[in-house]
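[Help] Beginner question about ligand-bound structures

Sorry if this is basic. My supervisor gave me a protein sequence and a SMILES string for fe (ii) ion and asked me to "get the holo structure". I don't really know what that means in practice or what format the answer should be in. Inputs are pasted below exactly as I got them.
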Amino acid sequence: MAPTTMNNPTNLIEFVMLEGNGVKGLSEMGLKSLPNQYIQPLEERMSMIKVVSQESIPIIDMSNWNDPKVGDAICDAAEKWGFFQVINHGIPIQVLENVKDATYRFYELPSKEKVKYTKENSSSKHVRYGSSFTPEAEKALEWKDYLSLFYVSEDEAMATWPYACRDEALEYMKMSETLIKQLLNVLMKRLNVSQIDEKRESLLMGSKRINLNYYPICPNQELTVAIGRHSDVSTLTVLLQDETGGLYVRAEDHHSWIHVPPVSGALVINIGDALQIISNGRYKSIEHRVTTNESNTRVSVPIFVNPSPSDVIGPLPEVLANGEKQIYKNVLYSDYVKHFFRKAHDGKMTIEYVKID
Ligand SMILES: COc1cc(/C=C/C(=O)SCCNC(=O)CCNC(=O)[C@H](O)C(C)(C)COP(=O)(O)OP(=O)(O)OC[C@H]2O[C@@H](n3cnc4c(N)ncnc43)[C@H](O)[C@@H]2OP(=O)(O)O)ccc1O
Ligand SMILES: O=C(O)CCC(=O)C(=O)O
Ligand SMILES: [Fe+2]
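Answer (accepted):
No worries, everyone starts somewhere. Holo just means with the ligand present. The predicted complex, written as structure tokens, is below.
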């Protein structure tokens, strides 16, 4: 298809979404300029003027995670930044390399294979391949393809996840379990929750979703975004990024942005809205965004650690025990997630849905 036909919205949606070519397919057409549908309003574009280079999120060595100093560093970072990187986290580097390779393997499949996993075609509602975030609700599309895999059980994943990336995604998920439990244990201790019983385990990590994100080379980096401003709706997110860079988190001044530099072997951890709600605002789910790149393809692999969809989430009694005012209502987690997915990315607005006025 000729690159110029991509300025017709119907042709573009058909090619990218319905035929399963994704933005990867667009990028590989060798477009000289960005199709209009991807041009973001001025206020949503990323300007380097807004980036502060003097600040950076903490890098925490997890070798002695039981050491109170490490625990303090994790909790302080969760309160102040909502984002930190961990090194010596116990997940073998090879497992991380394998899942990045598997991401490329999936996206390199012909579109007729990938299209089998779109919302319209997927035989499982737990497996979804798509492009942008919520195209029906967005003013401008995002320069991103994703494969989203909701974990129910090993058997179900073996039967339904795409073969090209199934084993590697499962291995990464399995190997991250210990790290996730260590982080949640430490974070709960500061909230006076001494032990994570079965009910609390469901609330904190009752469901998991792994996304394989693919951000192809983009013809006009400054006009669009790879992912717009948002906060995750998870309890916490464990994010593997490659060496390209492009992830920015909101600085404390609420205006500027801080780059999260790729650190070899590290994982990025961020607090999601569910934990901000559960902790009554003590731990912060920080707005973040991803820029596109004119020279390199980028991949990232977040594991979203979530409450179970059927859990009611709200500030924990231990947090309110000292008479602290409750600032968030109780909400069924699946209602919260549906609210998130039905609108375009809008920064920190999702949590307003449950704020007590
Ligand atoms: C994709 O780009 C993204 C994604 C993100 C994600 C950030 C996160 O924090 S993901 C964590 C999400 N939470 C969970 O995974 C909890 C488990 N959720 C579920 O099991 C279900 O979705 C449910 C909450 C129980 C709702 O189930 P159900 O009532 O059966 O409805 P669904 O059809 O599953 O979904 C409702 C609504 O949401 C849309 N949706 C669901 N999953 C996804 C997905 N992975 N990607 C995109 N959209 C999704 C779905 O289309 C439905 O909308 P309709 O309009 O069809 O009603 C961060 C940044 C990104 O760029
Ligand atoms: O690609 C990244 O670095 C971040 C991805 C992200 O924010 C998300 O998938 O929610
Ligand atoms: Fe995110």
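A couple of things worth pointing out: The chain has a mean pLDDT of 95. The radius of gyration is 20 Å. Feel free to follow up in the thread.
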